[in-house]
Amino acid sequence: MSTQSTAAPADDTLLAVEGLSVDFETPRGTIHALRDIDLTVPKGKVLGIVGESGCGKSTLAYSLIGLLAENARVASGAIRMGDHDLARLAPSAWRDLRGTRIAMIFQDPMTALNPVTTIGQQMLDIQYRDRIGRNAKRARAIEFLEQVQIPDAASKLAAYPHQLSGGMRQRVCIAMALLTQPDLLIADEPTTALDATLEMQIVALLRDLQRKFGCSVVFVSHHLGTVAELCDDVAVMYAGEVVERGTARALFHDPQHPYTQALLDCDPARIKVATRTLPTIPGTLPDLRQPPAGCAFRARCPRSWGRCERDHPPLYPGAAGQRVRCHLSDPAEDAA
Amino acid sequence: MLFYTAQRLVLSVVIVMVAVSILTLMLHVVPGDPAVMILGPRATPELIERTREAMGLDRPLPVQILMFFANILRGDLGEDVFTGRAVSQIVFEQLPYTMILISVAILWSAACGIALGAYSALRRNTWLDTLSGVVSVGTISIPAFVMALYSVLIFAVWLGWLPAIGAGDGFLDGIVHLILPAFAIGVAWVGYIARIVRASMLEVMTQPHVRMARAFGLPDRRITRSHILKIAVLPAVTLIGTGVAHLFSAAVFVEVIFARPGIGALLVGAVNERNYPIVLGAVLITTCIIVLATLISDLVVALLDPRQREDI
Ligand SMILES: Nc1ncnc2c1ncn2[C@@H]1O[C@H](COP(=O)(O)OP(=O)(O)OP(=O)(O)O)[C@@H](O)[C@H]1O
Ligand code: SF4
Ligand SMILES: [Mg+2]
C-alpha cells in the first residue's frame, strides 16, 4: 500500500486527525498533552500508536471517541470522519456515533465491565438501538462470544464479570465492541494487563477478527512485537507529538527518528523477540506544561546539535516514505 | 451463602444473650427495688422478702440471668409485675406501632436521601449541591427529639395541620398520625443517606466500567441507573441496616413526645415503674430486631452485589 506521506485519497481514509492539540487544565497549570497531531486512519487498516508512558497515547485514543477527562479541552485542530468533525461534536451527536460507528476496548478487563450485571445483560444493553426482539439480541450476543472463541458461550451470558478470568473478560469486551459493528475500533493497550501467553492469543484474535470484519483499528501499545504483528501503519509518539509515522515496514526496518531508533536499538532482536514493554531510554519526558521550544526529544537525543534547541522540527519526509519530526531528515541539512 | 447466614445467626444469638445479660446487670445497679415498687411504701419486710423470693430476685445474679434464658427458650418472657399479663403479649401488642413508625421513617428517608445524593453527585459543585450539603449536615446534627418537639410546635400547635398525639384510629387516621413522628425520626437519615450516596456515586462515576458504558453510547439515564446508582446505593443499605439501632432509640423519645403507643413508650413506662420483666422483654425483642436488621441489610447487599455473594 502507499505510505502515509502521500496523502491518501479521501475515500480510502476513514478518519483524519489534523493538527489536533489537547490541553488538561490542572491546579498546577495547563498540561499540553497533545500538540499538533496529524494522523490518518485508512479504511480497514490497523494503525499502531507507540510511545513511552505519559506521551499522550490514551489522550489521543480518548479524543477519538469523545471520552476525554472533564478537565480536557481541544485547543485546536480537527478530527474528520465523514462529514463530522469529532473535535467539535455535541454530546448528543457523540452518543449516536459511539457504539455504532466507533467502539473501544480498554486496558484493564478486570474493571471494564459492570461488576453487578451479568455479561448477557450488558451485551443486551449495548444493543438498545436495534429494533429486534430480546431473543434475537441474545442470539447475537452468543454469536459474538463464539466469534471471540469463548467456550460454552451460551452459559456465559448468566455469568458475572468476576466469575471470568482476565483473558475471558477481555474477550467479552472485544465481542461487545465487535457486536456493534463499528467502522473504527479503538484499543487502548488491550493486552497490557494480561500475561504474555494471553497477550499473544488476544493479539492473534484481534488480527483475525479485524480481517474478518474489515473495521479500522487504532491500536495503542507498549509492546513493539505486537504492534509489528498487528499493524499496517505505525505512529511513534513522544511528549505529546507524533515524532515518526509511516508503514510498519518502513518504521521497523528503516527508522529515521533518533527516538524510534533508540526504541528499536534497545530491543536486540528488534521486533522478533516479544518484548513485554518498551525499552527504557535514559532521561525523562519534558515538562508538558512548558514544552521545550526546539525539539522535544533534545534532552535525551544522542545526536542533537544547536539547531535542535532553536527550531521546532516539522514532519519531514523520511527515506522509506515515512514522516519524521527530526532535523536530521531535513533535506536542507543534507544539502548543507 | 448458606454457611454465612448460619454463621451470622449464631453470632446474632450470642449478641442478644450478651445484651440481655448486661441489661440485667444494669437494672441491678439502678436504685429502687421492684418488690417495694409493687407493694408500695407500707409493705412489711416479710412481705417484701416473700415477693422477692417469688420473683426470683433473691437468687444470685447469674442464676437469675440463666433462669431468664431458660424461660425464653420456653417462649416465656415472664409476667407483668402489676397485672400478671404475659410480657410477650404486651410487647407484641406494642411492637407493630414502633415497627411501622421505623419502617415508614426508613422508607421515606431512603427515597429522599438516595434521590438527593444522586442529584448532588450528578450536579456536584453547583449551588444546589452545596445547599443540599449544608442542609444534610444540619439535619444530621439535630437530635430526633428536638426535631419532634419543633415539628409538634409548628405543624400541630401553630398551624394545626396535623395531630400531635396518639396513633390514630383506623387506617387513614393512622397514616395522618404517622406523618410527624416519621418525619422527626427520618429527617436526619435523609442527610446521612444523601451524603453517603453522593460520595459513593462520585467514586463509582470514575470507575472504568462507566467509561466503557459511555463508549457504547448508552443513554445517560441508563448509565446513571444501572452502572452508577446500582453500585452506589450499597453503602447506604449497610448504613440503614446498622442504623436501625439508632432509629429505635430515636423512636423512644418520639413516642414519648407524641404520646404514641409503641415499644419506646412501653419501655420508658416500665423503667419508671421498675417493671423489670417488661423492660427485659422489650429490650430482648428490640435487640433481636436490631440484630436481624443488620443481617437483612447484609443479605440485601449480597443480593444486589454478586461479588459479595461469592465472598460470603
Ligand atoms: N485528566 C488529566 N488531567 C491532567 N493531566 C492528565 C490527565 N490525563 C492525562 N494527563 C497527562 O497527560 C499526559 C498524557 O497522558 P496519557 O494518559 O495520554 O499518556 P499515555 O501515553 O497513555 O501513558 P500510559 O502509557 O501510561 O498509558 C501525561 O503527562 C498525563 O499526566
Ligand atoms: S531534531 Fe535534533 S534533538 Fe530532535 S531528534 Fe532530531 S537530532 Fe535529536
Ligand atoms: Mg495510556
TrEMBL record, chain B:
Listed InterPro entries: BPD_transp_1_N, MetI-like, MetI-like_sf
Topological category with respect to the lipid bilayer: Multi-pass membrane protein
Top-rank lineage group of the source organism: Bacteria
Molecular function via GO: dipeptide transmembrane transporter activity
UniProt entry keywords in alphabetical sequence: Cell membrane, Membrane, Transmembrane, Transmembrane helix, Transport
Residue span, ABC transmembrane type-1 domain: 95-301
UniProt-annotated location(s): Cell membrane
Isomerase recorded as keyword: no
Presence of keyword Aminoacyl-tRNA synthetase: no
Coiled-coil blocks: none
Membrane-crossing segments per the record: 9-30, 97-122, 134-162, 174-194, 231-258, 278-304
Database matches in PANTHER family: DIPEPTIDE TRANSPORT SYSTEM PERMEASE PROTEIN DPPB-RELATED
Annotated family: Belongs to the binding-protein-dependent transport system permease family.
Protein name: Peptide ABC transporter permease
Organism, as annotated: Roseivivax isoporae LMG 25204
Upper classification of the organism: Bacteria, Pseudomonadati, Pseudomonadota, Alphaproteobacteria, Rhodobacterales
